[in-house]
From TrEMBL:
<dbReference type="InterPro" id="IPR015919">
    <property type="entry name" value="Cadherin-like_sf"/>
</dbReference>
<dbReference type="InterPro" id="IPR002126">
    <property type="entry name" value="Cadherin-like_dom"/>
</dbReference>
<feature type="domain" description="Cadherin">
    <location>
        <begin position="8"/>
        <end position="78"/>
    </location>
</feature>
<keyword id="KW-0106">Calcium</keyword>
<dbReference type="GO" id="GO:0007156">
    <property type="term" value="P:homophilic cell adhesion via plasma membrane adhesion molecules"/>
</dbReference>
<dbReference type="GO" id="GO:0005509">
    <property type="term" value="F:calcium ion binding"/>
</dbReference>
<dbReference type="GO" id="GO:0016020">
    <property type="term" value="C:membrane"/>
</dbReference>
<protein>
    <recommendedName>
        <fullName>Cadherin domain-containing protein</fullName>
    </recommendedName>
</protein>
Length: 80
């Protein structure tokens, strides 16, 4: 399932970019990837196999940022 991300620009016309982090501000290398080819949708691609008999809980932070380093973020809970 995908969720629409706003295609936005700041007051100077600079594009707003998105990045994904774990709750401790590390990139979730090896766990999930934000679909960078499609900046219009939030699509988390799992990068590893998860055991269906175990529950996995991840707190991710989606960050929107412009080139002047002004940003906003939202936390996302992923339960597998």
């Amino acid at each position: 399932k995908t969720y629409s991300l706003p295609h936005a620009t700041d007051a100077d016309g600079d594009l707003i970019t998105y990045s994904l982090y774990l709750h401790n501000w590390n990139e979730p290398t090896g766990l999930f990837e934000l679909d960078a080819n499609n900046n219009n949708n939030l699509l988390l691609k799992p990068l590893k196999k998860f055991d269906r008999e175990q529950q996995h809980l991840y707190l991710l932070r989606l960050r929107a940022e412009n080139k002047d380093q002004r940003d906003v973020s939202i936390d996302i809970i992923v339960i597998i």
